[in-house]
Structure formats: structure tokens, C-alpha cells
Amino acid sequence: MLGFNARNLSSIDPQYKCRICSRILRNPVQLNCGHRQCKSCVEYRLQAERIKCPECGHETLESEILPDRGVKNDMKSIGILCSFCPWEGMFKVYENHLNEFHANPTCDYCGTSFNSINELDIHQTTNCSEIRVPCPLKDYGCATSVRQLYMVEHYRSLEHQIAIIAFIRRDVPKLLSDTMDIDHFPQTTTSLVETHNTPLEEVRDMIAVLENGVDVLNEDAKRLSIETNKLSNAIEKLNNEYNALKLSIQEQNTYLDGIKPKQDALQQEVSTLQQTIDGSQSISYDGTYTWRISGFREKMADAQTERQTSIYSLPFYSSPTGYKMRGRIYLNGDGNARRTHISLFFVLMRSEYDAILRFPFSYKVTFCLFDQTSAQRHIIDSFRPDIKSNSFQRPRSEMNIASGIPKFFSLELLQDEANPYVRDDTMFIKIMVDFGDMPKTLLPFAFSVNPGYTITIQQNLIRKEAERRSQQQQQLLTSAMSWPTTDSSIVKTEEQ
Questions:
Q1: What does DSSP assign to residue 127?
Q2: Which pTM does this prediction carry?
Q3: Which end of the chain has less Cβ packing within 10 Å, N or C?
């Protein structure tokens, strides 16, 4: 280490130098391949409890590393110069000299003080960030000095790789050629062999440096391979998750497509329920119901696209303890009247008082589509129930089958924007159950009475109108009976 980095290190036998730090061995240990290293260098390079020999590449387990006391004893007779002062002497007393005169050394690079040379050596070998050492390939274009801690990173640099290529191209063939010349001429003198020892030693040193670089690159390759495998596994996992998510989305879309009809049906029920809530305050108990159909265009579009073909009115009653009824309209027609007429039906519903009511239901039902102008040309039509039909028997379910007038009103007349029956996107229809058998001729008057009047007033006006018409007919009949018939020609004509 640096404490033993003698100034005349180049003259020391290579067997006493560490191949890792290129300095004189300190506390030498032997690997199971036979090569020697500094104990601290070996401990620093241990990976997974094993070390790879920088000379031969053989791996040695930590438990197989043994102290080399023989070499340590041989080194005691080596002459050495102190790297801190002019002292010179034998290696065996060098450590005593260091402890006596250099007990608290300071790092020349970073200025940190230490309690012993050992700590300084460890610091300068492993921890000092300010130490700069020359790159072994500085003569081949690599950086002249590199921070010691970053030497491994330097080996990975492009600059160092280019220097390796330059060394291989320029010197390796020459050195190999020189070596082959020596092998072919064994009779060469000892001095000639010695002249070749120096380049061969340099080749070994260079190869050791290259091996270190290759080791670093191999370690990087292994690390990159492991990271690549991890990334591949992560990508595969992400792909699986993506496919699972994609399948989940497809299943969800299929599920949503499946529930869309149910959603539409629920929307219809919500719409009907909203109508029920809106009209719950205006329930009729007199056998008549004025049905206000707002949003006519949207409802007509729903009927034409068959999104909602029919609409129910709110229930109404003949009396507080009477029949329960409602209307049902097909704006785009039903059955044979589809796309040609509005179909309007009457529905008998189950009520709490059916047990005391008379069935079958036999009372005339009249529909009136209001003309919303002053002309009051209402569309009025009525029908009498078929008492044999199940539609007018006592309800056994919530509602009986609807029955009424399929061709109530022509759709062709509604296509005219100026038609008087739809104004402000609203239509009004009145349903009336006639318990008094009102004459058909009186119906236009009954529907022309101001709906703003109370039911009692409306009924009184209709009754008075019926009485007035009855009296008028009686007077006409009396006048006809009392008219003189002296004209023989008139009598003869009536007789004929």
C-alpha cells in the first residue's frame, strides 16, 4: 500500500508486488491458484465471498484464502526507501519506522488525518475521492490521470476502449513476435533474454490491466443481462395486465350493451314514475281525465324509433270508491294503424273496491283531442265496451288488456306544423266515461265547456244545455203537430 510504496519499487522483484494495486505486498495472502495479493486488496475485491485472480482468472472462495508467511518472511530482507522521509533500511523494520515517525499520517490528496499507516493505506486505496492515478493506457491516448474511485467507471468509457484497441493494434503483434524469436533461438545469450524480460513484463502488466477492464465489462454485461431479464419480465407482466385489462374492458362493454335495453326500460319507468309524481296532486275522481302530453316531438321520435312505442296516462277514478282507469296512446300507431294513425286505448285497472263494483264494465268511453285554437274543432270519438271481452272483466292482474280506437287520428294531419292540435310541443286529450248515456249530439258542447270551471259547474252547464235542447225539440214537435193542413196538395204528398 502507499505506506510501503518505496521510491525504488521498480527494482523490487515482481513476486513481491501486488497485481491488484501494483505496490509492494503487505500482509500477503495466497489464492488457491498460487498467486499472491495484499490482504486488504483481496478483501476489497471480494464479491459473493469469492475473488477472481487478476493474473489467471481462477476464482477462490474466501475460506480458501491463506496467509503467505513464507513470502512475508522473505520480504523482511528487502531493502526499501520510506515514501514519507529520506529513511532507508530493511523491510522488516520499515513498519516500526512508520509507527515511530509517521504515527498520525495525513492524506496528501484530501488532507484527512489518520491514527495509523494502515488506516491511511486503506483510505487511499478504497475511499479517497481525490487520489488521481494514471491510466495504464495513457500512452495509447487514454486520460493521463483518473480519480481512483472512478477507475472502474473509466474502464467503461469510450476513451479507454479506443485506447485498448490502439494498444492491441500497435504493440501486441510486435511483442508476440519478439517472444516467438526468443522461442526459436534457445541458444541466445542470457543478456538478450534479459533485454526481452522488460517488454514481456510490461505485456503481463498490460494484460492484467486489460483483464481488469474485461472483468468490469463482464460484470456490467451480467448486470445488464439481469436488468434486461427483469425488464423483459416486467414488460411481459405489463402485457399480461394490458391484455387482462383489454379483456375486462371488452367484457364490460358487452355487459353495458346487455344492460342498455334494461336501462331504456328503466328510463321509461322513471319517466312514467315522474309523470305519476307530477300528477299525483291532480287525480280525478269523477270519471274524466284531461291528459297533458308535453315534449310531443321527442315522444313521437321515441315512438317512431320504437324506443318507447306507447305512453300511459296517470290513473283516474270514477269515484273515490269506483273504477280505476287510465289511458294508453301509441303516437305512431299500433297494429294495422302503425305509421298512419294515432291509436288511443282505454285500460281498466285493478282497484281496492273491485269486490263491490259491477262487472263487466259496460259504460261508454269517449276520447277528445283538443283543438287549442278558438275554432274548437275538437276530434271526438267514442266506443262502447264489448262485455264479452277480457278487457272489461274484473281485473285479475294490475291492468287488463287495453281496448279502444286504433285509428283515432290521422298522422298525416299532425305533420303540418300549423295543425291546431299540437302547440308549444304539447297535446291535450280528454278521456270521459259516460255513466249517464249522454246523447252523441251533446258531446261537442260538453267538450267545449271551459275546463277551468269546477266539475260541478261543468256538469250543471251540460245538464242545462241538455234540458234546453230537449225543450227546443219538444216545442218543435208541438208546433209541427198544431200546424194547419188545409192544403190538399200537401196532404196528398205526405200520403204518397
A1: I
A2: 0.42
A3: C
